[in-house]
Amino acid sequence: MRWPSFVGLGLLLGCGLVGWAQPAPVDGISETALIENQKRLKWLRSEIARHDDLYFKKATPEISDAAYDALKRELNALEKASAKDSATSSESVSTGDDRSGNFATHRHGEPMLGLDKAYAEAELRAFLNRVSRSVGSDDSVFVVEPKFDGIAISITYEQGRLVRAATRGNGREGDDVTENALTIRNMPRRLSYNGASDTKSKPPARVELRGEVYIDYAEFARINSEREEAGLALFANPRNLAAGTLKQKDPADVAARGLKVVFYGYGLWAPGDGDAAPSSQQALNAWLRERDLPRVDRYDLEKGASAVLAAVDRWREELKKLPFPTDGVVVKLDSRAQWLRLGNSAEAPRGAIAYKFPPERVSTRVVGITLQVGRSGVITPVAELEPVELAGSKISRATLHNAADLSRRDVRVGDYVFVEKAGEIIPSISGVDLDRRTSEVKAFVFPSECPSCASELQTSKSGATVYCPSKRCPAQIQRKIEHFVAPAAVGIKGLGPVAIATLVRENKISNVADLYRLTAKDLVDAGVRSEAVAKRLLTEIERSKESDLARFILGLGIPQVGRANAEKLADRFGSLKAMSKATDEQLVDFSPVTRDALLAFLAEDENQRMFSAFESVGVNPQQPPMAAVKGPLTGKTVVLTGTLRGMTRAEATRRLTIAGARVVDSVNSRTDLLVAGDDAGSKLAEANAGGIQVIDENRLMKLLEN
Ligand code: IVH
Question: What is residue 308's three-state secondary structure?
């Protein structure tokens, strides 16, 4: 009978979120069970579609891969069961589709398949047995290598030149993300070879190299710390960040995040009079190495099932030492001939499998749910946990993200929950252990008032977040001040959260400018240890007036303004006062999101009062604005188009700006100069038609060197 086995499987694999019980069939499948089946099928399909959308289109998944795969397996099992038990035809879900609708569609030369997955050693053994049976030998050679956790990519080269980059999409057709992919620093634009005379090493006429675009841990940490400074929600994991970044509409936004590419396979390979297709995974790696192309630089070659299993076991620890995110290992037949002989199932090759190590996960009890008020008023519910050890650290809190997420997941005080740390840096609650929920455990009622100022909480337009609308909320003011005094901003040493909380509560400070009005007495009253300590603190506060303008701007906590934007604003305006009057036109080269956030910030009375307060306490950080610096391009409006070879677009934009230029997106009558890289298209035509000066990359380099 099918029921018990896959119900068990679902629970085993961590479908803890799903509270579902099935009446035991007495004799075959009962009528009620059939109806329940249909309900469950419907629910599974819509739930999977919802998660596909969150994962592929929005790049904000809510459940772990293991939980998602468990849903899919359950659906498959249930479809098979219901196809047999009733006359209903089994209608299978598609394997997801990452196309976002923002890009042109590219049809792959060869389909991009997925990989079958194994979560237990037994499944891996079954795969190895299956393969040796089909190949007719027990000593096939397998490659065991890390499974990169990013977004799959197919790069087409024609006569050795990069002509196309496309995502997997639905496997047949994907998003054409060529412009974005060209900003990736280690993306090879050419398949270099040792000179045209050496015919043996001529690139194939047309080839699709397959690989992954990912973000390594160091870059992930850098981006998140900038987001923290800018008061933005942190990215949950590097995979979503890589996927989301590759799908940005503006290539400059892609360039700003250090994506990387790695190649581990190929699709179409038409040699023409160039290199023939590699006959094995090893040969592919050698080919990539000779051309110094990005490749998997550590992999094992193993013969026979037990050697493969031992290698997989070694990788369990080794993966943790890698500087980039992985979500398991891939085991694949080395020989291309064997791989092709085995062929493909509907969605995946039979000669390869992904083995995912179970995420490290513990169970613990929720002892409370508290609300955290952020700098901008957003409320984040946090689960307070009975402390547990997880992957080497003590965990006592885990974020519940937002009100909507909390209510959908139905986490309650008193529940036992599973806490996971997989690829994610921040531990997350992967599910509730419903078997351990007692009748005393009551649903969590989300408070209607701000825990700090008792204002009535409001819900955002999207419905996902709840926020405190008060501009005078002490918790928000406290967070703003903490941000301002942090080392990355103006850096006032010795003013800790307890003193800040007291000063805010006693109405001694209501914005960051008020810090400069404090007296030694205020500080002592706020609990600072002694008069002497208070005096030292005042000296620190005084000294902070000398901080760079960019640090002041960063310290204001303007949404979307992290270090990079703060520096750009400082360069643009030269003083807080000038920035406080910024207009739309002065911000053309900022992204629309940043521009809107800054203008909204400046439009608030409360914030304008703060700028005046800075003036009246004599805090007036200044620097010569960039435009006043005489550069070769001072005052010129420049447009970049086409592909640059020597630098990324972001780099070119930065250097042009330093040279005094204003870099904008589109060509119009105010454009002074167009820099045309390779394959420049419509903008070049427009510039030519409009009689605008056009220069190439070499000329640009010369200009910038001057
Ligand atoms: S081989 C037919 N090797 O995993 C697909 N895939 O879940 C052959 N992946 O779509 C792929 N690292 O995007 C292969 N070392 C690796 C990989 C890898 C990551 C991805 C790939 C694939 C997905 C399947």
Answer: helix
